[in-house]
Amino acid sequence: MDLREELRSEIDGKTINYCFSCGMCTGGCPSARLNEKYNPRRILHRAVIEGKIEDDIWLCTNCYTCQERCPTKTKVADIISFMRRIYVKEKGIPEFIKPLVTNLQACGFTAPIGELENKRRERMGLPPVKTNDEIKRIIEKTGGGVK
Amino acid sequence: MHCLKVFLYDFGGEIKYPENLSFGKDVEIIRIKDISTEETRKAVEKALETDQVIFVGPSHRISERFFHDPNIKYVNAREQVAWVGHNPEKIRDLIQGSIDKLRSSSKIEKKRFPIKYKSALVIGAGIAGLETARQIANSGYKVYLIEKKPFIGGLVARLDRLYPAGTPNSHVLYPLINEVVSNPNVEVLVNTEMLEADGIVGDYTVKLRTKGNVVEGKLPKKCEEVCPVVVEDKIIRKAIYYQPTYPEAYGIDFDSCNKCGNCVKVLPELTLGESEKTLHVGAIVVATGLKGYDAKRITEYGYGKYPNVFTKLEFERKFANGFIKPKSVVIVNCAGSRDKNHLPYCSRVCCMLGLKAAKLIKDTAPETEVFVNYIDMRSYGIFEEFYNTVRETYGVKFVQGRPSEILQDAEGKLVVRCEDILLGKNIEMKVDCVVLMTGFVPDKETFEKLGIYSSGAYPVEYVNSTYSIDSNPRGIFIAGSAGYPKDVAEILINAANAPGGVIEILSKDYVENKTPTAKIDSKICAENNCRICITACPYGAVHMKGEEVTVSEEVCMGCGICTATCAAGANQLEGFEEKGMLAQIGGMTKQGDIIAFMCKWSSYNAADKAGHERLTYPENVKIIRIPCTGRVSSQMILKAYESGAKAVLVAGCPPDACHYFTGNFKARKRITALKEMLKQFGIDPATLALEWIGKDESKRFVDIVTGLNGKK
């Protein structure tokens, strides 16, 4: 199915037409600051003009800064999440995302939490993070996980 | 029973009338030879004195040029019958419908408003208020010019220069002020606010409150020195201060004054008290101008947090007065404008104000590095040249991209983070100073006091350009930027509109209303009291007066949208009363007809054009002219089906282009709901059509009615 049509079938996806390419999303994006390849404005514009999804959508950290600041109220972060769902539906989980899923299955977090993190938490007066296998059980029971 | 006179005009033999045309004893048929003669006009006028009149001949567009009485009912026998090749017998049904309608309608009384006071109140003494006052006063009428601030001149007086050429404001302002204040017809009241206004055109009662007084001709600097209140008004000043406009005196800013009385000790003539005054005027001009949007609300840009982030006016005053000398500047266009979180609209002049600021910096300090951040550069008309100058001659750098955030680094430099869209990557600009080109907001308080209806931010009449021609005479006008943001040149050119309207009214003994208005039967209304019509009116003309719902005749434009929403039948638009409309539908409909309700602003003209082009469409299509599709009530459509119609067409202006803003959307909602109901009555909902037909779309009209005729 055409990406544009899929987007149109979602209430939040429809807001892609609100975008007037002002660049406020990219300007404040922490991911874009570290990686020139990532540009949420370009992702949205490419979807409108070319109807294409590329691998760069996986660089979004879901911080929602773009969506918060967007002057046209385009649901930028939601649209990118939605594009990820379309991506997985068509091409499956990409190779470079698989380690994250493995981690999630193993410890319940996408990135393993080690001593460093717990030390930082201690300084901030937070209890240490415990890993458990609850998520692992959920993933197994629902038939998920990396195959 | 009414007596009726039907005038038949055969347009030089082009319109064939059916033989033995007769509608009963009390209907007299008169044949005329020429529509344009004095004789015809007199005969119609004479008939109107005693009887009701139907004029059968060409379209309303032509007939209304010769007769101005709203009580005449026109039947369009030329465009709708003769020219489209229909059987003359159709005219009989059309006339019968009109007769039935007139018999169930009441007479539209002409309303006259005497101009009791030949004077005007101008609220706001900025550039627009001054120009308006000048023109009215020069035409010989008394003008009261009131200003909220202690000095006149408004926003322009506080600017350094005007774009595009960078002319200092003194070129415009000083001669204008001198001409206005020296005119004996003008009374200037500063530090004065309007508390309330009541009345109608020609007779307004206005209550004013003046704070303090003006001691002209005495300027002891000591007044300012003893004042303990320091005010940060873009530049730093005291609560008592002097501004080189008018009056030539010290003025007190009562918003900041703490009433310590130190200045009164220096100048005993000064008072700090308040006084009230009541004025009677015939017309009011609102020239309240604009305020800048509160930049503190745009939290990402750090205004109020970082000392070197300024708004446009602040920067101009500080820079021109030499308080700041930045080495590098970023000018942020659209700060908070075109932004659904702040101001959703474009304030129109900020792009050019940004260029003006860039030119101001480069003119006085050419070595300064200037960046302009923009989304789209709106340099319309002659301003493209200005844009070119600033880019080509001055070397200002333009970055397409709206800054996402502004931060301050350890050295106190401001960091502007934005995407350069043309490079396709993020950039950071480290500069000394950032100027936010914030948008403008109008003074809504005055609009509310005067009952000026605004949709969104600005008054509605400026959305629809036909306001002056088809509305009833009103005594309240809007001048200058209060309507929408304008630059000084535009204000001076456009400011002629308001004084023109005021002078037109004041020069007459009375004004008459042109448009029939909606009327509310308070007795029926009180029983239901649903108040739906209040929300339906696109102009805010229907409102509560005490416990009663009333229509202000001045504001009503005669669309009838409110009438269609009134389930009780209390709200009736003159000339289009529900009873009359139902009678007309019943009178003209025969079995198997198609009834077309066509909006007089667009689709009715498309049907006329089909006649001019000698197109033809099914003979059973009968057209009813309505002021707006919003006036077509469900009852009218059901009545058409009940009388034997096989299909109904409701045709109006294209979406967003409704003459009355929302009438066609209201019609769409109503018809969508009605289609559901039709199924329950056993009527095929496909026979009810709602179409947008523009004035030139005659062929589309023919296709649509032909299609409807094909349905069984």
Describe this entry's structure for a reader:
The complex is a heterodimer of chains A (147) and B (712). Chain A has 147 residues and is an all-alpha fold. Chain A has helices at residues 3-8, 24-27, 30-34, 40-49, 65-69, 76-91, 98-107, 115-123, 134-141. The mean pLDDT of chain A is 89. By secondary structure, chain B is an alpha/beta fold. Chain B folds into five domains: 1-108, Rossmann fold (3-Layer(aba) Sandwich); 119-212 and 273-289 and 448-506, FAD/NAD(P)-binding domain (3-Layer(bba) Sandwich), CATH 3.50.50.60; 292-441, FAD/NAD(P)-binding domain (3-Layer(bba) Sandwich), CATH 3.50.50; 515-566, Alpha-Beta Plaits, CATH 3.30.70.20; 589-712, Rossmann fold (3-Layer(aba) Sandwich), CATH 3.40.50. In chain B, a hairpin with a 1-residue loop joins strand 13 and strand 14 (235-238). Chain B is elongated, with a radius of gyration of 31 Å. Mean pLDDT of chain B is 91; it is low at 462-466. The A-B interface holds A 20-29, 32-33, 36, 39, 41-42, 65, 69, 71-73 and B 300, 334, 338-342, 375, 400-405, 417-421, 424-426.
Which structural class best describes the helix and strand composition of chain A?
A: mainly alpha
The portion of residues forming beta strands of chain B comes to 25-35%
At CATH's second level, what is the architecture of the largest domain in chain B? 3-Layer(bba) Sandwich
Q: Which CATH first-tier class of the largest domain in chain B would you pick? A: Alpha Beta
Terminal CA distance of chain A reads 25 Å
Biggest sheet strand order of chain B reads: 10-7-6-18-31
Low-confidence stretches of chain A: none
CATH architecture term of the largest domain in chain A: Orthogonal Bundle
Share of helix of chain B, binned? 25-40%
- Counted by DSSP, the helix tally of chain B is 24
Estimated helix fraction of chain A: 40-55%
The overall average pLDDT of chain A, rounded, is: 89
What is the strand tally of chain A? 0
Spans of chain B with pLDDT under 50 lasting ≥5 residues?
A: 462-466
Rounded average pLDDT of chain B: 91
Radius of gyration of chain B: 31 Å
CATH fourth-tier homologous superfamily of the largest domain in chain A:
Alpha-helical ferredoxin
Chains forming the largest contact:
A-B, 21 and 22 residues
